[in-house]
Amino acid sequence: PGEIVDRFISAAAPGREMRVTYRTNRGQTTATYSLSGFVAGVIFMDEAQGRIGDDDALQLALEGERRGTVGGGDAANVSWRPLDRVPAGIITYFNFEDRLCGQMDTTLAGRIGGFALDVSGQTGFVAFPCTRGGAYNQPYTLFQRNGSAYAPYMLPIMRDGSPSTTYYAYNLTWDAVAGELTSFFRGRGLGDCGELRRWTVTTDGTDAAIRLISSRTKDACDGVTDLEGPGWTSNWPVEPETQ
Prior knowledge:
Mean pLDDT: 79
Helix content: 10-25%
Distance between the termini: 42 Å
Largest sheet: 6 strands, antiparallel
Structural class: mainly beta
Number of helices: 3
């Protein structure tokens, strides 16, 4: 819960070290962690998640001022919020083998976590793990919300140079600063090959849609990667229709 996180941040910020005591099969153990740089780390997380200036910025907890409402990106006035349980409106798609997300039970999906993109009071999207993933690839499915009703959303993609659609997006994330959804299927754990797709959310005021803006594929797992740089995929081939 947010209030527990707030209390932890406000208590840890002025400290010098943190001690965690836990029990193992060998008995009780205490680990000590330095809190040097803790405040800088909180601010870095806000920057990475696009929370700077928002009411839910973690750094507001340093002064006990965080209000717990979520801001977000500026694309189509979209706001983002994390979810740790599958909404009632999409449970019907889980738990049974003949359903879209039949290989994923709602308990595991909630433990991995999802997120909601709220476009307006009446429409938006929910993203949740929809089938079991592998070591470094987790498939997500988006469900579009209209009022209290949900329906699986087919994402536009490019496949082999032609427009197509899919219900699955791997390792899906939301960039609140850029206002973009990103799916990165890793060809292997190193991240030097695979598929990268980016979408933006659009709206006409009453309805919302997701538009593909970039699709890149790199088949050669050549060991060349820079996962820390913003343009690390700039040398990957671009699907022609999204240039």
